[in-house]
C-alpha cells in the first residue's frame, strides 16, 4: 500500500483499525500484532497497509543515521561518566524508532521532542553538540527551535504534547500543508496533558501525529503500571486511529510515520503511533536498572537490535560492503571526537547570564537584582584592589 | 474617538475587539467564550463578529487551554485565553509555571511567549467554593510571568491592550465584583507605562496601597477617614509583577506610614513583599511598621461568611488607626 492510499482513507476507517485491531481480535489474549517490515533476523516482510520500497541509498542512509546516533549517544554517556556532563538520557535501543520517524518528516513539519530524542534531532539537522549544553549545565536548551523546526527538549513529562497540538492548530489556521510530530513515552501516556492533547487534537482535527515510544519502562515502572490496554488502542476512544509498530524496525517506523504525517497534512487529523521498543540502557545516567528489571529481559531485546537487523539486510542483499562499514566506523569515531572536544571546550556561561532572557520586554525587579548582583560581584574586585 | 462611559467588563470586551481588529494573529480561547460570550459575558459578540476560528470555545480542560496557547504562540499567534474562574486555574498551573513562564529563558530569548491569561478573580459575589479566590501571589512569585490587575474601566481597556502587545506572558486578573462599575474610557488616549502604580487620591498622613477590587475599598476608606480629619493617600498598584516600588516609596517618604490592602491572604502575599521592600527603602521615613489588611490563612469561606473574610472599609480603617497610633 502506498502513502497516497492511506491518505485517501476516511479517518473513521482507520488504518490501525483495519490493519491491526481487526486481526488482533482473532486472538485477543495474545500481544497485539505490530507493523513490521524488517524482522529481527534482517528479512524484509510486507504489510498490506504500509508498503515501502527504499532505495539502497536510503537503506544505507538509515543505517548510517542509526550508527552515528548510537555512537554519539555512547560518547555522551562516557562524557557523563567522566564528569563532563551532569546527566545523560541515553536513547540506546530506540534508534530505529527515532530515525524511522525522524526521516519521515518534511522540512516544514515541526517536531516536539521529550528529552531523549537525540536521533530525531539528528534527522532534523540539529548539531549534536547543541543537545549537550543542558546536560552539561551551561543552558536549559538554547537552540533556536525555528532553525530546524525542532522544539526544545521538554523535561516535564507530557507537556510538549499540548504544545504540539496548539502548534498544529496554528498550522491548520494558516492553511499550511505541514504536520506536527509529538514525541512522548509510555510513562507520559498516564499524564493528563497527553489525554488533553488527544482531546484537543481530535476536536480541532489538528494535523499532529503522536509518536509514543513505548520503551517498556518509565524509570522503574513497567508499562503495566501505566495501562491495562495496549497504548495505541487509547486513540480509538478519542476518535482517531492508533497503530502499534515494531519500534526496533526502522523501515516500519518510517513507513507508518510517513503515512500518519501524510494523513495529517491532508486534513484527516491526528493519529497515534505506538513504537514498541525497549530502553536498553538506564533511564538516565543516575539510574540503576538492576534494581528493578532482569538481565534476561534485556538479553531478549538484544536479539531484536534495530541496527543489527538492518546491517544483516544490507549485507545479505549486498547493498553495502566492508568499505562502507569501515568508512562509517571512521565517521562515527570522528563524530565522537568532535562531540568530545566540543563539550570539553564548552564555556560556562557568564555570571550575568543568570538574569538574561527572564523576560522579553524587561522587568523592573530583574533589573534591580541584576544591578545588586553586579555590585556585589564588583565589591570583591574592589576589596582585592584595596589589599 | 471621544471618551465613553462604560462598565469594566464592557471595557475588556472593547479592548479584545480592538486587539482582534488590529492583529489577525490575536486569538481568544476559553470555555464558553463563543456563543455564550463567557459566563460573565466579557467576550459577548466576539465570536459572532470574528468567527469560530479566532474566538475559540475550548474543551473543558484548563491545562489544554494554556498548553495549546503555548503551541499557538510558537506558531506566531497571540492567544488571549480565559480561565473561567480564579479557582479553576490550577489544572493549568503546571503549564503556566513550568512552560509558559520559562520558555523565553529556556530558549535563550529565541522564543517569545505573547500569551495573555485572563482570570476573573476575587470575592464578594456570593459564589460557591473556588469562585472567589485571589491567587495572584502564586503567579507573581514565578519569574517569567507578569501579573497585573486593573481597578477601573479605563485601565481594564488599556492594560489589556498593553498586555496583548507584550512579548511576555501576562496574567491579567479581572476584579469580577467590579465588572459592572462604570468609568470613562478614552480609546484614543495614550496610556502610561503598564507596570506603573498610580496615586489615585493624594494625602499626607498615611499611604493606602491596593489593587484590583480593593482600590474602591481604599478610596472609600480614605473618604471616610477625611471626615475624621485624616488625610490618606491612595496608590493603585495596578501591577503585582513587577511592582512599582518607586511610586510607593515616594508616597511613603511623604506620609511616613503604609497600609497594604488586598483580598488575598496576607501571609506571603503581595503586601508582605511590599512591606519588606518599603521597610528596606524607607526605614528612616517610616513612623510605623507597614501593616497589611487581607484574607486570612483559611480556605475562602462559604459566602455567608465572606464579608468577615474580605477587607472592608472598617478593617482598613482599623489598620489605619493602628498605624497612626505609633
Automatic annotation (TrEMBL), chain A:
Residues 1-36 are annotated as: Disordered. It holds the Pfam family E1_dh. One of its GO terms (biological process) is branched-chain amino acid catabolic process. One of its GO terms (molecular function) is oxidoreductase activity, acting on the aldehyde or oxo group of donors, disulfide as acceptor. The keyword Lipid metabolism does not apply. Residues 64-345 form the Dehydrogenase E1 component domain. Its cofactor is thiamine diphosphate. Keywords: Oxidoreductase, Pyruvate, Thiamine pyrophosphate. This is Pyruvate dehydrogenase (Acetyl-transferring) E1 component, alpha subunit. The lineage of its organism: Bacteria, Bacillati, Actinomycetota, Actinomycetes, Kitasatosporales.
UniProtKB/TrEMBL annotation, chain B:
Keywords: Oxidoreductase, Pyruvate, Thiamine pyrophosphate. GO terms for molecular function: magnesium ion binding; oxidoreductase activity. InterPro entries: THDP-binding, Transketo_C/PFOR_II, Transketolase-like_Pyr-bd, Transketolase_C. Coiled coil: none annotated. Residues 6-181 form the Transketolase-like pyrimidine-binding domain. Its cofactor is thiamine diphosphate. This is Pyruvate dehydrogenase E1 component, beta subunit.
Amino acid at each position: 500500500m502506498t502513502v497516497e492510499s492511506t491518505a485517501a482513507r476516511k479517518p473513521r476507517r482507520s488504518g490501525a483499525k483495519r490493519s491491526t485491531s481487526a486481526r488482533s481480535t482473532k486472538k485477543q489474549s495474545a500481544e497485539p500484532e505490530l507493523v513490521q517490515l524488517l524482522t529481527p533476523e534482517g528479512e524484509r516482510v510486507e504489510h498490506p497497509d504500509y508498503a515501502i520500497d527504499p532505495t539502497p541509498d536510503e537503506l544505507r542512509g538509515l543505517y548510517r543515521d542509526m550508527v552515528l546516533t548510537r555512537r554519539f549517544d555512547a560518547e555522551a554517556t562516557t562524557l557523563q561518566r567522566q564528569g563532563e556532563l551532569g546527566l545523560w538520557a541515553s536513547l540506546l535501543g530506540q534508534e530505529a524508532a527515532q530515525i524511522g520517524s525522524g526521516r519521515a518528516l518534511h522540512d516544514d513539519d515541526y517536531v516536539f521532542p521529550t528529552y531523549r530524542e537525540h536521533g530525531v534531532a539528528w534527522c532534523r539537522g540539529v548539531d549534536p553538540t547543541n543537545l549537550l549544553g543542558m546536560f552539561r549545565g551551561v543552558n536549559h536548551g538554547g537552540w533556536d527551535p525555528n532553525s530546524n523546526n525542532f522544539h526544545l527538549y521538554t523535561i516535564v513529562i507530557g507537556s510538549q504534547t499540548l504544545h504540539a497540538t496548539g502548534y498544529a492548530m496554528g498550522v491548520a489556521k494558516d492553511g499550511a500543508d505541514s504536520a506536527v510530530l509529538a514525541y512522548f513515552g509510555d510513562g507520559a501516556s498516564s499524564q493528563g496533558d497527553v489525554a488533553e492533547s488527544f482531546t484537543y487534537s481530535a476536536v480541532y482535527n489538528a494535523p499532529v501525529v503522536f509518536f509514543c515510544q513505548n520503551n517498556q519502562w518509565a524509570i522503574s515502572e513497567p508499562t503495566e503500571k501505566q495501562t491495562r490496554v495496549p497504548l495505541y488502542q487509547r486513540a480509538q476512544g478519542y476518535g482517531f486511529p492508533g497503530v502499534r509498530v515494531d519500534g526496533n524496525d526502522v523501515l516500519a517506523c518510517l513507513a507508518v510515520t510517513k503515512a500518519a504525517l501524510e494523513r495529517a497534512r491532508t486534513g484527516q487529523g491526528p493519529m497515534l503511533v505506538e513504537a514498541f521498543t525497549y530502553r536498553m540502557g538506564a533511564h538516565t545516567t543516575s539510574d540503576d536498572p538492576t534494581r528493578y528489571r532482569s538481565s534476561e529481559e534485556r538479553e531478549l531485546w538484544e536479539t531484536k537490535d534495530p541496527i543489527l537487523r538492518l546491517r544483516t539486510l544490507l549485507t545479505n542483499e549486498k547493498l553495502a560492503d566492508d568499505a562502507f562499514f569501515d568508512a562509517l566506523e571512521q565517521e562515527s569515531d570522528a563524530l565522537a571526537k568532535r562531540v568530545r572536544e566540543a563539550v570539553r571546550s564548552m564555556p560556562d556561561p557568564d555570571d550575568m547570564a543568570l538574569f538574561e532572557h527572564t523576560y522579553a520586554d524587561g522587568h523592573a525587579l530583574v533589573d534591580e537584582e541584576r544591578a545588586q548582583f553586579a555590585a556585589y560581584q564588583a565589591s570583591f574586585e574592589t576589596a582585592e584592589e584595596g589589599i | 474617538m471621544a471618551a465613553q462611559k462604560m462598565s469594566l467588563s464592557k471595557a475588556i470586551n472593547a479592548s479584545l475587539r480592538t486587539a482582534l481588529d488590529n492583529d489577525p494573529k490575536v486569538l481568544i480561547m476559553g470555555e464558553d467564550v463563543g456563543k455564550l460570550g463567557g459566563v460573565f459575558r466579557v467576550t459577548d459578540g466576539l465570536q459572532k463578529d470574528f468567527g469560530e476560528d479566532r474566538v475559540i470555545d475550548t474543551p473543558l480542560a484548563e491545562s489544554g487551554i494554556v498548553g495549546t496557547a503555548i503551541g499557538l504562540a510558537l506558531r506566531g499567534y497571540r492567544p488571549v485565553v480565559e480561565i473561567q474562574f480564579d479557582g479553576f486555574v490550577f489544572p493549568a498551573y503546571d503549564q503556566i509555571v513550568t512552560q509558559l513562564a520559562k520558555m523565553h529563558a529556556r530558549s535563550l530569548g529565541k522564543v517569545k511567549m505573547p500569551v495573555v491569561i485572563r482570570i476573573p478573580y476575587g470575592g464578594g459575589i456570593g459564589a460557591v467554593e473556588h469562585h472567589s479566590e485571589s491567587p495572584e501571589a502564586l503567579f507573581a512569585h514565578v519569574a517569567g510571568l507578569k501579573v497585573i490587575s486593573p481597578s477601573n474601566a479605563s485601565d481594564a481597556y488599556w492594560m489589556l491592550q498593553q498586555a496583548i502587545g507584550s512579548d511576555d506572558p501576562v496574567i491579567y486578573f479581572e476584579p469580577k465584583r467590579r465588572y459592572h462599575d462604570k468609568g470613562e474610557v478614552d480609546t484614543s488616549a495614550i496610556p502610561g507605562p503598564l507596570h506603573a502604580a498610580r496615586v489615585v487620591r493624594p494625602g499626607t498622613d498615611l499611604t493606602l496601597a491596593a489593587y484590583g477590587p480593593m482600590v474602591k475599598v481604599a478610596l472609600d476608606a480614605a473618604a471616610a477617614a477625611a471626615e475624621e480629619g485624616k488625610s490618606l493617600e491612595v496608590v493603585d498598584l495596578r501591577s503585582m509583577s513587577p511592582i512599582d516600588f518607586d511610586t510607593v516609596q515616594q508616597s511613603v517618604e511623604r506620609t511616613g506610614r503604609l497600609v497594604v490592602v488586598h483580598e488575598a491572604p496576607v501571609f506571603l502575599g503581595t503586601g508582605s513583599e511590599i512591606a519588606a521592600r518599603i521597610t528596606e527603602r524607607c526605614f528612616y521615613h517610616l513612623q510605623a511598621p507597614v501593616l497589611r489588611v487581607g484574607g486570612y490563612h483559611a480556605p475562602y469561606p462559604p459566602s455567608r461568611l465572606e464579608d468577615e473574610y474580605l477587607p472592608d472599609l472598617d478593617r482598613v480603617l482599623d489598620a489605619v488607626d493602628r498605624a497612626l497610633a505609633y
